[in-house]
Amino acid sequence: MTPSGDLDRIQSLSGRVFGPTRLRAAENDAALDARIDTCTIGHLTLVTIAYNQAVQIEPQPNKDEFVIQTVLAGTCRVETPRGATEMPPGATFVFSPTVPTTLSLDPGCERFSVVVRRQLIEEAFRQQFSFDPPAPIEFDMQPVANDGRAERWQALVSYLRAETRVRREGGAVQAVDGSIERIVLSTLLLDRFAADGNMLPRRFEAVLPDYVRCAIAYLRSHLDQPLTLE
């Protein structure tokens, strides 16, 4: 069997980065190990990770982290209530903590992820759209569409990986952290909630005050008449 110490150590390491997670190793008679590189930019955690064998990953309840995952090498199979999909190299997927998910990774699968806490996304949503976010915030549980958005994420991932290498070599410029964080969060939110161009999230129903609705009803019924002030 896989030594329990190895599995516990890797699972604990993964949990500190991605939140509560359960790992299952495919090879019971081989030691499980992981190659992991992390970097922090603002409130974002950037992670490059690969395991030495095939593994199955199941995020656990009470998880508070959203994960923007891009496959760098190998393949990753994702199973959600909406079905199963294969993620080839270059594909990006946004995982929501409230949606049950199972990931099955090939032995050569390497992933780059941006980990974002729920509170940070909620605050960014309020700043972007000027009203409270839906509860819970959930993203499309499928790879980012290949309609320009996928290419945009690939470019952004390339930049973030380059920034990670620069910081590893001691060349970080902390003054740009806030700007990088805003670019990532704005891209994430606009891709999900403004794709139809109306800047309102799907499933969100705006509620107008009574006096505004009365004013609109009055104007609609008197559009062919001159307005007078009394």
TrEMBL record:
<dbReference type="Pfam" id="PF14525">
    <property type="entry name" value="AraC_binding_2"/>
</dbReference>
<feature type="domain" description="Transcription regulator HTH AraC- type ligand binding">
    <location>
        <begin position="13"/>
        <end position="188"/>
    </location>
</feature>
<dbReference type="InterPro" id="IPR035418">
    <property type="entry name" value="AraC-bd_2"/>
</dbReference>
<dbReference type="GO" id="GO:0003677">
    <property type="term" value="F:DNA binding"/>
</dbReference>
<dbReference type="InterPro" id="IPR037923">
    <property type="entry name" value="HTH-like"/>
</dbReference>
<protein>
    <submittedName>
        <fullName>Transcriptional regulator, AraC family</fullName>
    </submittedName>
</protein>
<keyword id="KW-0238">DNA-binding</keyword>
